[in-house]
Amino acid sequence: MLENPKNITEIREEISDEELTSFAQAIKTRYGIDFTNYEKKSLKRGVARLITKHELGSLVGLWAMILRDREFFFSCIDDLLVNLTELFRNPEIWLKLKNDVLMQLKDKPTLSIWHAGCSTGEEIYTMAIVLKDNALYEKATLLATDLSTQALGKAKEGKYSSMLWNKYTSSFQKYKNIGKLDTYFEVGEDHVIVKDFVKKNIDYQKHNLVQDPMPKKFDIIFCRNVMIYFDDVLKMKVLNLFYKALNKDGFFIIGYYDMLPDQSKDLFVLHDPVTRIYRPK
Ligand SMILES: C[S@@+](CC[C@H](N)C(=O)[O-])C[C@H]1O[C@@H](n2cnc3c(N)ncnc32)[C@H](O)[C@@H]1O
Asked: What's CA 193's distance to the chain center, in Å?
């Protein structure tokens, strides 16, 4: 145990941009995972979180551990990234989906939906519930992808703490004030678990937006609160991937805090500024 360990902010401030870039480069060379164009401030926060959690003192300590121990590195990804998410997050989006987006797509013979950066699954289960609620689930296929194996494992399990149940129920009621969220979950004392009929049409795959191709086409792509960690160069790379993977009559949905570079106007036009829904150009 270190004496008077520094706090996360102090550690973060000690890391220079150059050190961070070399660190990201070393990870890329060793493990093929590319964080080099991640937004520096949030990556530094993630690195500082790891140094504190494992009492490694400084970036040098973390660097040595990560390059030495592959398993340790993969267990670190969740701390490097932030995977906060929730069921029916921003209820107005789900209402807009129901009343506008799904109305426009409902007559298609099939519906394919991709949640890129799905984290622990709450967002894709929200979509699945909205599809069920609108009798569109049976013709839909949903793809949940994330870089983090741990987050994806939790997504597959669909098991969430009951401590959040009241919050989730209240968000659900803003989407729909009749009907019950527990139709879709086994509600236990400590946990709630997504029922199998909600999971049935969901495929879960590890996928790195920065490096991996996406050969399929989709009617709706969600990428909410993922690009906040990317710089503009990386955002454009990923936006091109989404553009190619989106059907011409499709919809692209980003998070409230995701800022798109100006160049993205060549690819997408804003459909609804409130819920940050775009359409391909
Ligand atoms: C804040 S969560 C967003 C969860 C969900 N989309 C939402 O808004 O509720 C961000 C997720 O992006 C994932 N992520 C970060 N970089 C990624 C990348 N290069 N490829 C795929 N997923 C990535 C993280 O692992 C994390 O689970």
From this structure: 20
Cβ pair 93, 115 in contact under 8 A: no
- Which residue among 45, 118, 146, 237 is best mutated to probe the pocket of ligand 1, counting the most ligand atoms within 8 A of its Cβ? 146
Distance CA 135, CA 106 (A): 9
Task: Kindly report the protein residue whose alpha carbon is nearest to atom 14 of ligand 1.
Answer: 117
**Ligand 1, CB cutoff 6 Å, lining residues:** 81-85, 89, 117, 119, 123, 146-148, 151, 208-210, 224-226, 229, 255
Q: Are residues 136 and 12 in the same domain?
A: no
DSSP 6: P
Measured in Å, residue 76 CA sits from the centre of ligand 1 at 14
Domain assignment present for residue 168? The answer is no
Quick one: which of 44, 42, 38 has its CA closest to 19? 44
Contact criterion met (CB below 8 Å) for 86 and 168: yes
pTM as predicted: 0.88
What's the gap in Å between 11 CA and the centre of ligand 1?
24
pLDDT in tens, 93-130: 999 999 999 999 999 999 999 999 999 999 999 999 99
Residues 29 and 104 in one domain: no
Same domain, 117 and 236: yes
Give 269: exposed, middle or buried? Use CB within 10 Å, 0-12, 13-18, 19+: exposed
In a shared domain, residues 55 and 107: no
- One domain for residues 149 and 238: yes
Identify whether residues 107 and 71 lie together within a single domain: no
The two structure tokens encoding residue 277: 């829904």
Residues 223 and 274 in one domain: yes
